[in-house]
Amino acid sequence: MLLDEINSMPYELQAKLLRVLQEGYIRRVGGMKDIPIDVRIIATTNEQPSLLVDKGILRKDLYYRLNIIPINVPPLRARKVDIVPLSERFIKKYNEIYEKEVWLISDKAKEKLINYSWPGNVRELENTIMAALSMIDDEHVINENNILLPETDNSFVGATAKQIDISKKNLNQILEEIEMSLIMDSLKRNSLNISKAANELGIKRQTLQHKIKKYKI
């Protein structure tokens, strides 16, 4: 059983988990019978466990109970060789979900992925690939403009912070700039999740996808 980011588990629930691990049985809510369990636990954290213990986020006794074979996984930025293979795995996953036929990543898109720092690690990479596939209609290749990276894409960062120059522009051009800025800001707030951004903006997901392609965000 994988317990992902166990430090997110409420402190009181950690005590219950510890008891289960120590006693080796569970009891259903309202039940009277103890049910023995035979399970192997893999627990992950997104910070050093010892620091989480010091902060009072992770129970010390649970940490010692789980810390039998510690495995330190370096951040994604420290293992760039994994970025493309992981991306290809996520492409396969979301091809099935979105019923797409995307099989390749362009060289420029690969370069963009590899040069990014990935503060959100593998989860951020998966979200990025998911967003890229959701924007593609009939193409079979992920191109550079499909990769939305907040920290590196100059068309994406700080777009809503700039002043819109209205000189020598008609009303439609001004409105399009405002719309594009609002879309980029919403995507950034929602970690590039198109469905959430569309819901926040009050438009359909398909409409947002069309606008993303229109403005080449």
UniProtKB/TrEMBL annotation:
GO function term, MF aspect, one: sequence-specific DNA binding
GO process annotations (BP): regulation of DNA-templated transcription
Matches recorded under Gene3D superfamilies: 1.10.8.60, Homeodomain-like, P-loop containing nucleotide triphosphate hydrolases
Keywords: ATP-binding, Nucleotide-binding, Transcription, Transcription regulation
One Pfam family of this chain: Sigma54_activat
InterPro entries documented for this protein: AAA_lid_NorR, Homeodomain-like_sf, HTH_Fis, P-loop_NTPase, Sigma_54_int, Sigma_54_int_dom_CS
Domain Sigma-54 factor interaction stretches: 1-134
Keyword Transferase attributed: no
PANTHER family cross-referenced by the UniProt entry: TRANSCRIPTIONAL ACTIVATOR ROCR, TRANSCRIPTIONAL REGULATORY PROTEIN
Protein name: Arginine utilization regulatory protein RocR
Encoding gene per record: rocR_13
